[in-house]
Design a protein that fits this description.
- The complex is a heterodimer of chains A (85) and B (187).
- Helices cover 55% and strands 0% of the residues of chain A.
- Chain A is an all-alpha fold and 85 residues long.
- Chain A has one domain: Orthogonal Bundle (Non-ribosomal Peptide Synthetase Peptidyl Carrier Protein, Chain A), CATH 1.10.1200.10.
- Chain A starts with a helix and ends with a helix.
- By secondary structure, chain B is of the alpha/beta class.
- Chain B has a single domain (6-73, 102-185), classed as Peroxisomal Thiolase, Chain A, domain 1.
- In chain B, strand 5 and strand 6 form a beta hairpin.
- In chain B, helix 2 (40-56) packs parallel to helix 5 and helix 6 (129-141) crosses helix 7.
- The longest helix of chain B has 17 residues, at 40-56.
- Chain B is globular, with a radius of gyration of 17 Å.
- The chains are: A mainly alpha (85), B alpha/beta (187).
- Chain A binds chain B through residues 16-20, 38, 42-43, 45-46, 49, 52-53, and chain B through 22, 33, 36-37, 91-95, 98.
Chain lengths: 85, 187
């Protein structure tokens, strides 16, 4: 699980162009949106594409997305349970 | 090279735009993390506009923006096209797609400087001072804006150029087509 969390941090920094962050700046339980990493709605769409492309998970319910993207811990648990890739 | 009123502010020998613009961002001490999410055209327009507004129109709100270029958003359009060309690997990037319009760079400038003003983006074959002059004069004479940020910001692969200026009713240089053309050619 820790390996997946690290992988997610690296992907988020790279794919969302968070140039001023390193993996050590992101705690597992930091909020990804709002006061945490400060991601926006376009970032959310990019994360949905990443889930589909890299883990074979398709999110279609916006409410589900809001829950899944709470933090790295929540996201990693969700991926571990639902991944097809 | 980036210059303001003929004075060099930043110079870097790098031929790669991404290296150069990142270096300019750091050197000019611009603290705006969203910069790194922008496409190349927006990065170019954003940095030049930021320098100009901070120098001569800081904290002003009624600044219209009239920009122009030749390549529209073609550079980002190509990147997006590549991302959707393989049907077997079809994952369009939302963050690239939002920059497939040239006037998005005006939005980035407006967000940073809290501008809720008139704006337009024109596509011309080449730098066209007459059209910029007509539009800026109209905005000022009809009191639609107190100042107008005008210019040319073009990006196509690694070929890029930006020339921006601010016009107001009581400016230091007379606002004429010839003066705009002269300043463009002396940059």
């Amino acid at each position: 699980m820790n390996e997946l969390k690290l992988e997610l941090k690296e992907k988020i920094i790279e794919q969302l162009n968070l140039e001023e962050f390193t993996v050590t700046d992101i705690d597992d339980d930091d909020a990804l949106f709002g006061d945490g990493l400060g991601l926006d709605s376009i970032d959310a769409l990019e994360l949905i594409v990443m889930l589909d492309k890299d883990y074979g998970i398709q999110l279609t319910d916006p409410k589900e997305g809001k829950e899944v993207f709470q933090s790295i811990t929540v996201l990693a648990n969700y991926i571990a349970e639902h991944r097809t890739k | 090279m980036i210059s303001l009123n003929g004075n060099t502010l930043f110079e870097n020998k790098s031929e790669e735009f991404s290296t150069l613009i990142k270096s300019a961002y750091k050197d000019l001490d611009i603290n705006y993390p969203k910069f790194f999410k922008m496409d190349n055209l927006s990065k170019l327009a954003f940095i030049c506009a930021d320098i100009l507004i901070n120098n001569s129109a800081k904290n002003e709100s009624n600044i219209a923006i009239v920009l122009s270029n030749r390549a529209s958003s073609l550079d980002t359009d190509r990147t997006f096209q590549k991302s959707i060309s393989d049907i077997e690997n079809h994952y369009p990037s939302p963050s690239i797609f939002v920059y497939t319009l040239p006037n998005i760079c005006i939005g980035e400038i407006s967000i940073k400087h809290q501008l809720y003003s008139e704006n337009s983006f024109f596509i011309f074959d080449a730098f066209s001072p007459k059209e910029l002059w007509v539009y800026a004069e109209n905005l000022l004479k009809t009191n639609k804006a107190e100042k107008v940020l005008c210019g040319w910001v073009d990006f196509d692969e690694n070929d890029y150029e930006a020339f921006l200026y601010i016009v107001e009713n009581e400016g230091q240089i007379h606002h004429t087509i010839n003066e705009i053309d002269r300043l463009y050619h002396t940059q």
